[in-house]
Amino acid sequence: MASELTKRTSPSEAARILVVDDEPRLVDALASLLNSCGYDVTEAYGGNQACELADTSHYDLALIDLRMPEVDGFAVMAHFENRQPECGIIVISGESSFTAVSRALRRGALDYIRKPYDPEELIATVKGVVGKQTLLKAHEDVQGRLEKSEALHRYIVNSSPDIVFMLDAHGRFCFINSKIESLLGYKPAELCGKHFRHILDDRDVARGTYALNAPDISADNPRTLEIRLKTRGSRRANRYFEVTAFPIAPQSWTHNSNTQGDGSGHKACYYGTARDVTERKEAEAFINFQAYHDLLTRLPNRALFKDRLELAITHARRAKQKLAVMFLDLDRFKVINDTLGHAMGDRLLQSVTQRLEGCLRKGDTLSRFGGDEFTLLLPSIHGKEDVSQIARKLIKTLKAPFQLDEHQVFIGVSIGIAVYPEAGSNMDQLIQNADIAMYHVKARGKDSYRFFSESMSIDSTHRLDLERDLRMALERSELRVFYQPQVCASTNRIVGLEALVRWQHPERGLLYPRDFLGLAEETKLIGQLSEQVLNQACKDVGHWVRSGHSDLRLAVNLSPIEVEHPRFVETLIERINANDFPPGNLEIEITENVIMNDLEQISQKLRELASLNVRIAIDDFGTGYSSLNYIHRLPIHTLKVDQSFVKAIRNGADDACIVNAIVAMAHGLKLQIIAEGVETIKQLEYLRALGCHQIQGFFYGPAQSAADINNLLMQTRLQNAVSG
């Protein structure tokens, strides 16, 4: 008997192991590794061969891959359960989903190792499982001899991988094996005589006491529950155990031997075991956390947010209250991520999360919806002003710069808001409508917030169709470039042409930029659209430049997305060179807001372009920051006075004070001035009197096709020739 026990619990080289995988290379590598550790290894190339070997040979342990053709790992596990239930199973698989892991553990797998595995970790796991299997087998081998051998009984109990205990009628320990010391730090002698509550976690005292006193508990109906047991000393965390206990039938217990500690055998009324399941509970908790949280920011993910929103809607409906859903999208995050790399981008998201969490009320739920998008649930609100206050707070907290190592970066946030029940009565409607409202913020300049309204819903109804049509338009070359003349105020000569895009829609006719440019930016099609427009404009204007209008200037408006891109300068120069267009005849128009979003980076890009003779114009001047500081520091050549100020020229100088100031400032800084939106002779004469250099607007005509502009330039050339 002693030699047999030594054989089964001696070093692991006696263990027989079956390795199952459909990849021969992986099977051979794993078998070689286990053979080098002294194990007796058999190789099975696929599920069919594994099942055949299970019918003819006995194994102590099987290492099984899940994903195999014909017969997968779960089927192999089921076959072993029928033919060799005592064989231990370890799953080694590249499948890491919660469903696969959970299913494998439920099918009886003792451990789960993910491919690619660490050899040392795998060997340690195999050694542990084999050792545990050995102890379990030893426990089973001698269980039938317990009545004949007290010494063997004590050996088995103290060598058990589980805590074994006995309680008296009052719930006090009268026996406990030595496993308690290695798992929880208590010596058996110090616990005997004490109530079992002494080692229960305070949160589980009531459950544990009730389970033992349940009226239906018996030897045939033991009580099993998972509870936390205290470890000795405050530095060690409490551990989870699966406890099984039942009353001892008087006729089955011998009263002639003493138990360990101060108790005696005739006092024992309950028998039980406690199996340490801490690692399993921690694995389950981690898998559950992964299923419902974003690991980067530790915020609830989309699934958990939807669960909480569903509950909040139910509560709001019953209590007749309101709630709000915010959809947050970070402005300029993609530029920072592309420029500084994904690691810096991840750090920025974590910093953003910390700031946003500081703005929340108790009970609010902030989640990362994906990428640089967040959602926020605000339950129990009184009205829109409550939500507006929080939205303003969120925008303000993100305005301060973020420090990423030596880089100081600025971002903003666009927030769409949907209020229940006005903006939706269910979860999907609220999230979708908050998203729609957020895109309306993006289309109107970003870094703000808007509440959803029904008019937005009407717009969004056609959004998918329009997006589809726009993608097809880019493929079918349906975009057209029109040109609006920029005329010298003193000579009436055309000195420049602003390129303006139009879309010749096959069903809706000619569409203007306001109808589709916002959508192009949202769907990231703006780059492709801009490339087509610039290519065509460079060809048209380049032809006119080479045909005798050598000083003709091409003005192009650029999207903030393009300007903020790390390769903006390189891409623009590549397009110019590809069309053989002279850089000195190009003027790019950007808004003040684009410059101020990242003054340092934009300044560097503009200086590079200016060094190549490309002119820089500030579009819609007077509607943004209008800072003399950046105008003085940057290589700016032209200010374009926004048409809203030109329209104010009606009844004299009082209505045009802003135009007066802008023109005077431009003269002082030696900058060119272009007035947009000039429609009347009164406006023209006023601007001429101020000394405005160039005029653009319907007074000289709307934007026209390339053919019409070509005729106009030919007429001008003929007139100049005649007058000459």
UniProtKB/TrEMBL annotation:
CDD domains registered for this protein in UniProt: EAL, GGDEF, PAS
Annotated ranges, domain PAS: 149-201
Protein name per Swiss-Prot or TrEMBL: EAL domain-containing protein
Keywords assigned: Phosphoprotein
Signal peptide (UniProt feature, chain positions): none
Domain of life: Bacteria
Pfam family, one: EAL
Alphabetized PROSITE patterns for the sequence: EAL (PS50883), GGDEF (PS50887), PAS (PS50112), RESPONSE_REGULATORY (PS50110)
Domain GGDEF residues, every copy: 321-454
Every EAL domain range: 463-717
Residue span, Response regulatory domain: 16-130
InterPro entries with a match to the protein in the record: Biofilm_reg_signaling, EAL_dom, GGDEF_dom, PAS, PAS_fold, Sig_transdc_resp-reg_receiver
Positions carrying 4-aspartylphosphate: D65
